[in-house]
Amino acid sequence: MVNVASRRLVAPPAVLAATLGLAAACWAVAAWLMDGMDMGVATRPGPFGFFAAAWVTMMAAMMLPGAAPAIARHVRLSGKASAALPFAGYYLAIWALAGVVAYALDRPHGPLTAGAVVIAAGVYELTPVKRNFRQRCRENAASGLGYGLCCVGSGIGLMAMLVALDVMSLAWMAMVAVVCCAQKLLPAKAAIDVPVALAIFGLGLVIVYAPSLVPGLTPPAM
To answer: Under a CB-based contact definition with an 8 Å cutoff, are residues 124 and 157 in contact?
Structure first.
């Protein structure tokens, strides 16, 4: 009979594997849902039901890999593997609410607006607010709700950038996911964070002044 101490040692690796497996499955589902919908800044979110399903799937795919260590840490501290499900559920629920806001605010726009949002995202990366939320996101594993709120505060600029550029683009989705995951797992370092912020800012300038240089930003002329 496996004792409680043994279960505590086994649970975190199993939780990590399950979380990463779910994220991988969601990447596959997201690719299927978004197939043929990538139209650059002209992409429309579609009916709310479809958007909600696609958004939640995307958030699970993008955010669970970076959240997996926090989920495992929460399981280890609680001593119950079953604690992983509500933690992840509340975490994804916060991101789902962010999607509702994104859907409500989204309007038809062109490269100028998209570029302005990307520039703002680059600036946000360098603010004390961003640094505070990022630190709290790395440290907070007491509840999925608190963890989710901190991580949304940390990643809100990057997610706004994704929505402005093309919410149905796997390429932009993957790029934003890599940055979000790295910021969850790695400590803040100016030598890395400042160049990343400047790169985002520079991308925004290119989109504003030379959108044709950004592949897939606008649909091809018929």
So the answer is: yes
CA atoms within 13 A on the CB side of 185: 14
Q: Which residue has the tokens 């890999």?
A: 65
**Contact partners, residue 7, CB within 8 Å, separation at least 6:** 79, 81
Whether the Cβ atoms of residue 140 and residue 146 lie closer than 8 Å to each other: yes
Distances (CA, A) of 19 to 14, 15, 22, 33: 9, 6, 5, 21
Which amino acid type is present at position 64?
Answer: L
Give CA angle at 84 (89, 130), nearest 5°: 65
CA distance 137 to 139: 6
Half-sphere exposure of 211 (CA within 13 A, CB side): 17
Rg of the chain over Cα atoms, rounded to whole angstroms, equals: 18
Q: Which portions of the chain are predicted below pLDDT 50? A: 1-2, 4-10, 222
Torsion sign, CA atoms 67, 72, 73, 75: positive
Per-residue pLDDT tens digits for 40-93: 787 788 899 999 999 999 999 999 999 999 998 888 888 888 888 999 999 999
Residue located via tokens 């849902």 = 33
For residue 134, the Cα-to-chain-centroid distance in whole angstroms is 13
Q: CA angle 204-99-28, nearest 5°?
A: 85
Alpha-carbon distance of 164 to 94, in angstroms, equals: 20
Residue 66: other Cβ atoms inside 10 A: 23
